[in-house]
Amino acid sequence: MTISVNGNIIETSTINAEMERAIAAGHPDNEQLRDSAIQELILRQLMLAEANRLGIPANDEDAAIGQLLEQEVAVAEVDEAACREFYAQNTSSFQQDEMASASHILFAKGEGLAASLAKAKAEGVLAEVQKNPISFTALAREHSTCPSGKSGGALGQFGRGQMVPEFETAVFSMAAGEIAPSLVETQFGYHIIQVTERKSGDVVSFDEVQERLLAYLSDIEQRKATHAYLANLVHAAKIEGYQLPAFS
Known about the structure:
The chain folds into two domains: 3-75 and 222-247, no CATH class; 99-199, Chitinase A, domain 3 (Roll), CATH 3.10.50. Strand 5 and strand 6 (189-199) form a beta hairpin. It is an alpha+beta fold. The chain is 49% helix and 15% strand.
């Protein structure tokens, strides 16, 4: 069926061209692409007609549409009170994940006798570290079979679920600055672990997120207002051959 907007036909060639433009811009070539192209063309035609009615110059169609929306779409202002209300009603969204930073000295355990020797060596180094914690970095550089040994055993920051279970359990049961009292055995070998930082899963304060909340809620209001404006244009128009699902 032919698609027309206020009596102006949208040709199949125009739809195909819009689909090709969308694909070139990186949109997936799927079954929704044709619908998206038709909807884009209908809304674009409605906005350009409205811009023309209001006397907005249309030498550059994109500029004309931009000016139309800026001029005609009334967006509700988002203030601090609105941000605080959203923050209070969505506290769980601002929950930080529990994080830790740790360093380790790894001894690959091998098989049979090699495993026993590796463990004995690891026990000896652990005794040195416990006696003189400040030596951890130097001993990691000297003994660790992990690439992190070159940087003193530092593994950086990580959260739960990012390390093997045995390692994670040890780290998250310790406080910052502590060294595990015994070796931790994992599939990779024997670890001497030092926790360097711990961050609990606290809720981020309002002050920390206020600026981002303001931008987020302002964007939502902009989208709502734009949708309402376009809905008015759609409902006032005579569109044949296609029904815009978002405005039905």
